[in-house]
Predict the structure.
Amino acid sequence: MNQKVKRGVFGKEIYHYFCLESTNKVAYLLAKKGAEEGTVVVADEQTQGEGRGDHYWYSPQGGLWFSLILRPRMISSETSRLSILGATGIAMSIDRLFSSLKVRIRWPNDVVIKDKKVAGVLIKVRTERSDVNFAIMGIGVNLNVREFPSPLSFIATSLIKETGDSTSKKRFLESTLEELENLYFSSQVNGHMLLEKARSFSSLLGRQVEVITTEGKFQGLVQDLDEDGGLILRLESGLHKKILPEEGCIKERSPKI
Ligand code: BT5
C-alpha cells in the first residue's frame, strides 16, 4: 500500500504500509532499484523489526518505525558518523517538541530519557569498492507505545509514558525529517556543527564506562566524541582508545557526578 506525499528532500516520497517485516528491508530494495535520496518507508507495525547485529526491535502499533534512503557523498569509512547523525536528529526533534523532557544520546545509537531507551537507529550501507552506493537509516521511536513486554519494560520507555499524552505520528515524522535533513546537508559543509550538537546531547561525556567491543571489553573515562562518530576513551592505563559506532556498545559503570 503506497502513498506518495510531496515534501522537502527528506520525505518528498513517503511509502506508507500498515504492516511490514521491516521497513529497512523494503527501503533497501527500493534503493537498489534507484529510489531517490530522501525516500522514506514507514510502517504502522513491523513483525521482524531489526536492531544492530542479531538484535531484534520490538515494533507494535503506536510506534514510529521508518527508514530513510541516503546517497551520501562519502567513502565507506566515513559512514560511521551516520549513526550519530540519526540519534542527534531524533534527540533534536524530541527536544523541539517536548522541551521539558531531558533527552540524551547514549553512544552510539540510543536516544534515552532518564536512561531508558526511547528510540534507536540502525544504519545499513551498500558499498561498491570503497564508494558508498547508498545507506539506509532505520529509525524506531517509541511514540505511543503504552506497554513493553519484560525484559524491555526495565530498559525502554516511550513518549506517551513520559508525557502522558499521545503524539501525532505525522507531526513527529515531519519534525524529525526536518532536523535530519538540516543536519545531513549542513554536516557535509561543516562537520563540527553535528559534533557540537551530538556532544550537547551526550549522556556519556565525563562518565566512567565499560565498552563491549569485538576486540574485548574496555573500561575508562569518556573524554570526547570525534568527527567519525567515534568514542574517545581514556583507559585506566592512561592510554586513549577510539571506538567506532559499529565496533561497540556501552555498559555503564558509574553515574555522572
Ligand atoms: C537499535 O539496535 O537500537 C536499532 C533500532 C532500529 C529500529 C528501526 S525501526 C525502523 C527500521 N526497521 C527496522 O527493522 N529497524 C529499524 P540496538 O542498538 O541493537 O538495540 C536493540 C536492543 O534494544 C534490543 O536487543 C533490545 O534490548 C532493545 N529493544 C528492542 N526493541 C526496543 C524498543 N522498541 N524500545 C527500546 N528498546 C528496544
User: Anything to note?
Assistant: The helical segments are 23-32, 81-97, 152-155, 159-163, 169-189, 191-201. The chain has two domains: 2-201, 208-252.
